[in-house]
């Protein structure tokens, strides 16, 4: 009975290994190959400048050149000095780098994003404001702006930071609000 249980366990282990290994392939790199390095949270903490949000972290960095094969599944990479990391990595952290040889694909065909340097309209008056966010760090103020030559029913909400050109109008709005509240 003991032998029968052991045989069943070995058979189950072989079956599981067969299904797990189905999608795996042994990766081998040669000296001089270029690879991408998988950025784990531990690696990212060491190299990040703390300016990026966690969701904006790239999954891989590189390409880096393979300098030496240290073991059957470990390789030494030529890293940049800014990456203060140990240069030996397990093959599971590496991915082959395939350079894009199509020169046209490298250049973007998308138009550059428009940066609003100035409004082409003038403010008739600021009708209202709304403040969103619970604390000072997250607080933002929007103003309901009626533009010259546009009906009051078509007024638009504009963020306070986009109205940097209209400081006088914003100050006049706040002044009118404070005098109304005090009377």
From TrEMBL:
Residues 121-183 form the Chromo domain. SUPFAM superfamilies: Chromo domain-like. Signal peptide: none annotated. It holds the Pfam family Chromo. InterPro entries: Chromo-like_dom_sf, Chromo/chromo_shadow_dom, Chromo_domain, SH3_Tf2-1. This is Chromo domain-containing protein. It comes from Vitis vinifera. SMART domains: CHROMO.
